[in-house]
Amino acid sequence: EVQLVQSGAEVKKPGESLKISCRGSGYSFTSFWIGWVRQMPGKGLEWMGIIHPSDSDTRYSPSFQGQVTISADKSISTAYLQWNSLQASDSAMYYCARSLGTSSSALDYWGQGTLVTVSS
Amino acid sequence: EIVLTQSPGTLSLSPGERATLSCRASQSVNSGYLAWYQQKPGQAPRLLMYGASSRATGIPDRFSGSGSGTDFTLTISRLEPEDFAVYYCQQYGTSFGGGTKVEIK
Q1: Distance (Å, whole) CA B22 – CA A82
Q2: Contacts 24+ apart (CB under 8 A), B50-55
Q3: Which residues of chain A have a CB within 8 Å of the CB of B97?
């Protein structure tokens, strides 16, 4: 069974750093791209970027380029989303999801989401 | 960047009725590279349709997708209680539409 399991909820202060994770199982982790999607409270879905775990080839949405870092460790089948300096506006639910085919494909399996709260 | 506009914002229908959701792109979407997702409160989105008209694994056949170019449609032939949710379209590997909420009338 394909599963993406994300790390738990985080509460951080503005200016702090954060790295959340997404571990894949039940399939060949290095054969599929992993994407990240943001959902701010009460709002819609926003595509952030995507990574291929085999070689860490990464693509970012222009809206998120330079704001976050996407990485992966294929040895432990885990993808990451990282911030160097959080802002209150980063408070949101973050989902990882597996891409059905290429970097530009539908997202067929989703993690359960990681809620990030940034507040002083 | 292609902008996807979904309409209506909210659709109020009764169980058993037909739902028709629209997704319009600001530019042509290549080769039907369009997906639809369903999201229920407190849950992650779920892939319903890909390639504009192919159902994802396990999706019942009351869901169907159509369209090409700039105009796409998701149709739910007869609404079941579990179908009341928010639906998003997405151009592959990029932006999502703003969503359509299907609520019980």
Answers
A1: 35
A2: B50/A100, B50/A105, B50/A106, B50/A108, B51/A106
A3: 44
Q: Report the run of H or E that residue A20 belongs to, with start and end.
A: strand A18-25
Task: Compute the C-alpha angle A89/A97/A45, nearest 5°.
Answer: 40
Count chain A–chain B contacts defined by CB atoms under 8 A.
68
Chain position carrying tokens 């999201």: B39
Cross-chain Cβ contact B92/A104 below 8 Å: yes
- pLDDT tens-digit readout, B33-50: 999 999 999 999 999 999
**B31: pLDDT confidence band, cut at 50, 70 and 90?**
low
Amino acid at B20: T
The token pair that represents B101 in the structure block:
């909420």
Q: Does B24 touch chain A (CB under 8 A)?
A: no
Distance, in Å, from the CA atom of A87 to the CA atom of A63, rounded to the nearest integer, reads 15
Contact list, B39 vs chain A (CB under 8 Å): 45
